[in-house]
Write a structure and sequence with these properties.
mainly alpha; 80% helix
Length: 133
């Protein structure tokens, strides 16, 4: 079953790497939403620092929803989803592998860019031990 999941992960990663626009769309959307928020409310640093965490969370949720449609759609369109479900493995292993790939290709880049966005929005935090690692 682990080999099946690793095969699905490898296959989906290859498919997404071949279509870089599918990976970049959520990231660009996230950056655009964050860039437009100060224009919509106010570019004042105190107001931005109060609302920055909520803005980042909302923008990240919307960006991941943008790419969520492709989780099973491409496999359904070409008929490979039916074949994968007919495999002698539980369906949850297929779903878990696909969710992991979705997180890896859309969630991880958002997490990596969030500290830069937070500093742009004047979101101050106290330095902790985790900051240095």
């Amino acid at each position: 079953m682990i080999k099946f999941m690793l095969t699905i992960i490898h296959r989906d990663l290859l498919l997404l790497i071949r279509q870089p626009s599918e990976t970049l769309n959520p990231l660009v959307f996230f950056l655009l939403v964050i860039a437009l928020f100060p224009l919509g409310i106010s570019p004042e640093a105190t107001l931005l620092s109060k609302t920055a965490a909520g803005m980042i969370w909302v923008a990240a949720m919307l960006a991941t929803l943008l790419s969520l449609e492709l989780l099973f759609k491409l496999d359904h369109d070409d008929g490979s989803l039916e074949q994968l479900l007919l495999a002698p493995y539980p369906g949850w292993s297929l779903v878990l592998a696909k969710v992991f790939v979705h997180w890896l290709m859309s969630g991880l880049p958002l997490i990596l860019i969030s500290p830069v966005i937070a500093s742009m929005l004047f979101l101050y935090s106290k330095p902790t031990l985790a900051t240095f690692f």
